[in-house]
Amino acid sequence: MTPTITAFERSPDRGRGLARDMRVRWALEEVGLPYKVRLVSFKAMKEPAHLALHPFGQIPTFEEGDLALFESGAIVFHIAERHAGLLPDEANARARAISWMFAALNTVEPPILERQTAVLLERDETWREQRLPMVEDRIRDRLGELSGRLGDADWLDGAFSAGDLMMVHVLLRLSGSGILDEYPNLSAYVARGEARPAYKRAFAAQLAVFTGKSPT
Amino acid sequence: MTPTITAFERSPDRGRGLARDMRVRWALEEVGLPYKVRLVSFKAMKEPAHLALHPFGQIPTFEEGDLALFESGAIVFHIAERHAGLLPDEANARARAISWMFAALNTVEPPILERQTAVLLERDETWREQRLPMVEDRIRDRLGELSGRLGDADWLDGAFSAGDLMMVHVLLRLSGSGILDEYPNLSAYVARGEARPAYKRAFAAQLAVFTGKSPT
């Protein structure tokens, strides 16, 4: 049964692949699972039909037969659990890959989201200029630790996993900030993620929503 | 094999149960699994031995034989996957419970963490008074949606699950802010969590670290 995911009807990042549907598209491409996309407007996202699927009125959602899921982390995990390619078979390695998924979403992403809020929602506030460097230093604390752990490795723990998929996408949200460039091994890590054929297919598909042209 | 978790040697919240080891203690108590605790100082948390266990130098960690895990979400999930009591057996219900775990950690907790940062780390900044209400309104957006979904139910989706455990603990981080009181069904939901015998045992155990007295 082909699953259906939801994505923004009007891409707020102009097709730069930063919205959370990208994580799900990428996971689906990694495991080779075809999917359909239903686009939703900002208005429709907060209406009862969508809130029944996603209690917080966001994207992405995932529908497959009787099952409806929300939260990109949960959806990627659901895909990874049922299809080969995103989680190791060995039990301990699998549990560690799941640790990295949670680390991406609950340890690395929160300060990055805080920066996004500071830049977008508090853009015109008097404190913006003074506060932003403090927020960015909190991101650097996390990136320094992450960089130390990654070292010279290609991926965080052995082969590419759903943990890397999440971490790479979370780090991509720093695009344009220049912060990632301060950590050459993390920049290379993100570039390795972006170079994966599955990432490229997913990126082209979300860009096509913005340009109105189908991906080639 | 009895697992060992780590917790703060000096409880920064004075034993109020807000540190993330509480989530793991609670999960272990729910499934009836005995555990050991190793206390770590703030200094030791950033030293190589602990960083080998936790790349971001935080607590909790979880060690069981050859396996070492970090991130409270991943540890609770690991426990829930291997022991009855925290995830439904039915596949779709299980996937939805996992959605709530991720929602607690990646949708509800980030604005709550932002408030914590504003109150603790930016306490003396000139913008504190003006900015805090903005941050709190972002929390209210999430709580309003969560309250709407919970309605009159006891738990978020059927029986109590790891999703409720995470959500209740994330909401507890609003203690003392008065914000939770604005949502009577969420306050009652959190109180139901705190009333669970497993929660009480876990709370007593972490409090004992602070008071220096063993839980009775």
From TrEMBL, chains A, B:
The keyword Ribonucleoprotein does not apply. PANTHER family: GLUTATHIONE S-TRANSFERASE GSTA, GLUTATHIONE S-TRANSFERASE-RELATED. It holds the Pfam family GST_N. Keywords: Transferase. The keyword Transferase applies. Residues 90-216 form the GST C-terminal domain. Residues 8-87 form the GST N-terminal domain. GO terms for molecular function: transferase activity. This is Glutathione S-transferase.
